[in-house]
Amino acid sequence: MAGYPARDWQHAAQSQVMPNGCPVKRIGIVLFNGFALPDAAAVAEIFQSANAVGETTRSSLVRYEVCLLSATGGRISSSSSALLSTETIGTRHDGDHFHALFIAGGTGVHAALRDGRLVDWLRRTSPCAEVIFPIAEGRLLLDAAGLGPTAADPRRGAPRTQVLHDGLKSRPSPEIIHPLHAALAVVESDLGAGIAHNIASGIEPLLETQFTAIVCRNASVGVSEKIRSSARWLEMNGERAIKIDDVAKVVSMSSRNFLRRFKTEMGVTPSDYLLFVRLDMCCRLLAESDLPVDKVARRCGIGSGGRLSKLFRRYLGTTPTEYRLIKRRSTASA
User: Fold this and answer.
1) Name one Pfam family in it (predicted).
2) 3-state secondary structure of 88
3) Distance CA 3, CA 10 (A)
């Protein structure tokens, strides 16, 4: 798959039991048509790498079975039209217990939100998952299932699944944790810091783009719910032509108050934030796909390849084509 780990990441979804009888822990990755491929693929690659280490050293304490899941099963198309085979949610004979459950992001989440089977399954399965982690827009599916950060606490004394919106318990942080960091934290907990560090060194180029930290700032605990919602709306609609006045109306604020609050809480203006959202989208699409630069620019709301090239030179000191080549080389050597 161009631009992504050379190994076929779907191979990580095959169940294998170690001869020494070490426990197998299930890792679920929930997909839907139009999901964003890069982060989901990288999460699977981490657990595949952990299994490979165990095979090499013959001393692994655990083996991971990565399950690619969807509401209907069968072939699911990513936002870049890559097709992947999935199993239907809720069909396992051993129940729906997961050591960790990752919910993919991507523009297809809007249609997935209307899939009652998927939302109901997430609601039923959450008590059986030790960790649930939404990838980008995947948090909207958790919100729909009543598992978001604003969900009511369970009754006193009842076990609670960790929904990792703002950080792992072992690594509290005011910033949202990238899904790759969450996957690495699972590996570190099971296999130790040394193995996790070795795996991280191999996938480091995939962890983020130069704009990820800015785009993820909406998850900071210091950001109010209205500004957080407006930032998410900008992320979900970044490919469209947007007027800032329209964003202010979405959160029922005056344009003047919205501009002031957004700049104070997010550190950038709404217009700059929207630009960084679009550039982040462009970086990921360049790394993930073979789409021409002009088409990448249009899909991400930039307008033209010429404007995208100017923005890349300004913020990254390179061209989109050179950026793609650099990312390809870094992932191929991982």
Assistant:
1) HTH_18
2) strand
3) 15
Whole-number pLDDT of residue 32: 93
- Contact by Cβ (8 Å): 203, 334: yes
Domains of the chain: 9-206 (3.40.50.880), 212-332 (1.10.10.60)
Residue type, 128: C
How far is residue 102's CA from residue 179's CA, in Å, rounded to a whole number?
8
The single residue listed with the structure tokens 């690659």 is 45
Closest CA to 320 of 301, 295, 330: 295
What pLDDT score was predicted for residue 323? 87
DSSP string across 204-249: GGGS--TTHHHHGGGG-TTS-HHHHHHHHHHHHTTTS---HHHHHH
List of the chain residues with pLDDT < 50: 1-19, 93, 150-176, 205
Nearest alpha carbon to residue 33 among 88, 102, 104, 91: 104
Neighbour-count burial of 238, counting CB atoms closer than 10 A to its CB (0-12 exposed, 13-18 middle, 19+ buried): buried
The Cβ of residue 81 has, within 10 Å, a number of other Cβ atoms equal to 10
pTM of the predicted model over 0.70: no
pLDDT number for residue 51: 87
Query: Which runs of E-coded beta strand occur in the chain?
Result: 24-30, 63-70, 74-77, 83-88, 100-103, 131-134, 162-163, 167-168, 171-172
**89 in Cβ contact with 70 (< 8 Å):** yes
Tokens describing residue 72: 């209907």
pLDDT at 7: 40
As to burial, measured by CB atoms within 10 angstroms (0-12 exposed, 13-18 middle, 19+ buried), residue 37 is buried
Residues 30-67 pLDDT 10s:
999 988 877 788 888 889 888 888 776 655 678 899 99
Q: Specify the amino acid at residue 116.
A: G
